[in-house]
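[step 3/7] inverse_fold.run input=structure_tokens len=217
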């Protein structure tokens, strides 16, 4: 699967500069659709594979921007993968204060005033030869003892601070089962841990879903 993402060629554009431009535009541009390939996939430690449409639906339903209006994301350490010139890695640290109520898919979490700092986590994007992002990996924690979110990074750090205590880690059989039940019987408007099978692009070959164990183990 990851061999496919090397595209058997070299980029005709500056992948490092494009990644920095993409990251800088997040939160500042209303519509980022122009960045993404039609067969885009996002994967995190316990979410995904997810299409862009489902990802946007989750973001809108979580209500995190209203709950954390002062969210600041620190980006640093951009570097190209020496084994894939189309892939760029970088780090993020999130800081925010829970000053607004969070309405997350019908569940209400009143503002607590708590200040949040996540541990540093690794992100990466893979561009296709046309300069569109085809794969995005998010939220892999570097040091779970850093910050004040009990090792939870990015969006999961925000949810934890607001009071949504999710025991979510890769390979957690209980959390994985909860995800599967929600995927099978949950409402279309209740958010998704991964996209429907028919919507996942065919290049994504891993059978692992959400918090499932990584299949090669």
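[step 3/7] decode complete -> sequence:
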């Amino acid at each position: 699967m990851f061999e496919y993402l090397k595209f058997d060629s070299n980029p005709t554009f500056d992948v490092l500069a494009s990644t920095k431009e993409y990251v800088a535009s997040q939160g500042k541009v209303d519509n980022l659709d122009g960045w993404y390939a039609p067969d885009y996939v996002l994967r995190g430690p316990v979410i995904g594979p997810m299409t862009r449409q489902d990802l946007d639906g989750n973001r809108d339903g979580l209500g995190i921007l209203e709950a954390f209006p002062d969210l600041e994301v620190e980006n640093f350490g951009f570097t190209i993968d020496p084994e894939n010139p189309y892939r760029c890695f970088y780090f993020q640290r999130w800081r925010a204060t829970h000053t607004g109520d969070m309405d997350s898919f019908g569940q209400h979490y009143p503002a607590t005033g708590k200040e949040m700092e996540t541990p540093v986590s690794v992100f990466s994007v893979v561009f296709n030869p046309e300069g569109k992002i085809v794969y995005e990996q998010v939220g892999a924690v570097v040091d779970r003892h850093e910050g004040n979110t009990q090792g939870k990074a990015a969006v999961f750090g925000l949810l934890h601070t607001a009071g949504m205590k999710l025991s979510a880690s890769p390979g957690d059989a209980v959390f994985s089962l909860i995800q599967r039940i929600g995927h099978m019987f949950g409402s279309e408007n209740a958010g998704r841990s991964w996209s429907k099978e028919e919507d996942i692009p065919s290049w994504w070959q891993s059978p692992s879903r959400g918090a499932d164990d990584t299949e090669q183990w």
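[step 4/7] annotate
The chain has a mean pLDDT of 91.
Residues 12 and 130 are 9 Å apart (CA to CA).
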